[in-house]
Inverse folding.
């Protein structure tokens, strides 16, 4: 619009004062600036940067504690791994030693068993030999007794068949005399 003096005022948002100038508080840039300034003033007044700093410091401390904890856990895990590796090595050595000892004990037990078997075989052989000798001795005694019995029976039968009554009486008297040598004279008078 043109005013009387020949100035042309451009109205951007329709805020003109009565003399035709644009009013500053009607400008949107002014209010954006005021909002930013107010925002920063509120932040300073409410101590938001300090609060943000404390929050960030807390978060930093928390992260540092977690890193320290992780480092501690890493060191402990390394120590535990080394311990387990050492225990595993010791267990393998112990197992190898146990195997060697078991093999040695097995050989010793086998040798002792073989010695016991040999001794038992020797004793049983000696016992069997003794039993065989005793059986042979008993058999010889039985044969000897049977032979004596047979010979005695045969001699008695032969003597009984060939002997006369007078010879028989004389034989009995001589047997009696042989039993009682103190009284030989009485033996003849007994008839």
């Amino acid at each position: 619009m043109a005013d009387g003096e020949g100035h042309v005022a451009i109205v951007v948002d329709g805020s003109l004062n009565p003399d035709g100038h644009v009013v500053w508080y009607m400008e949107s840039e002014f209010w954006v600036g005021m909002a930013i300034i107010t925002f920063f003033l509120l932040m300073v007044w409410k101590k938001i940067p300090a609060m943000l700093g404390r929050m960030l410091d807390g978060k930093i401390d928390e992260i540092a504690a977690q890193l320290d904890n992780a480092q501690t856990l890493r060191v402990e895990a390394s120590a535990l791994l080394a311990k387990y590796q050492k225990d595993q090595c010791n267990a393998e050595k112990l197992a190898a030693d146990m195997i060697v000892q078991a093999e040695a004990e097995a050989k010793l037990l086998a040798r002792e068993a073989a010695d016991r078997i040999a001794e038992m075989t020797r004793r049983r052989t000696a016992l069997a030999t003794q039993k065989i000798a005793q059986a042979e001795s008993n058999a010889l005694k039985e044969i000897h007794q049977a032979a004596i019995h047979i010979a005695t029976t045969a001699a008695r039968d032969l003597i009984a068949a060939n002997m006369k009554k007078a010879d028989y009486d004389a034989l009995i008297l001589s047997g009696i005399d042989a039993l009682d040598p103190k009284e030989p004279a009485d033996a003849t008078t007994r008839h």
About this structure: Residues 77 and 83 are 10 Å apart (CA to CA).
